[in-house]
Amino acid sequence: MDIYWMEQTESDVPSENQWLSSREATCLSRMRFLKRRTDWRLGRWTAKHALASRLNLVPDINALAMMEILAAPSGAPEVFFNEHPAKRSSRAAMPLSTTISPSTRRRSSSEPRWMSVL
User: Which helix (H) or strand (E) holds 69?
Assistant: First the structure.
């Protein structure tokens, strides 16, 4: 099993939401609190960039919008491409998965950091 991870900060996330899918944008619009929305966006941004890197995709706005990180009934993040569950490869039946969590590693900055593990 290969494990890949990526770490991003809030300053990495664009202020606009074009990189979100329509289902993700709907999810975001239902969140009442700024901190929750900010953390959620940072987690999705980080996971999408980790996925793009792992799959050798250019992480432009359109490619990121085609990727979705949606919550399963359990709350765990599920990965979708064009509204279909993502697979590790065209031959693999196992879905592509990710985790999203605050990073405990701190550099000189006090800015919140999130990481995604594939």
Answer: strand 67-71
pTM of the model: 0.78
d(CA 56, CA 108): 30
| Token code pair at residue 68 | 């979705």
What is the structure's pLDDT at 24?
96
Q: What is the residue extent of each domain of the chain?
A: 5-117
Over the chain (118 residues), the average pLDDT of each successive run of 10 is: 77 95 96 92 90 86 92 87 71 54 51 53
Q: Which CATH superfamily is domain 5-117 in?
A: 4'-phosphopantetheinyl transferase domain (3.90.470.20)
Length, in residues, of the chain? 118
Phi, psi angles (nearest 5°) of residue 34: -55, -45
| Residues 8/113, Cβ–Cβ less than 8 Å | yes
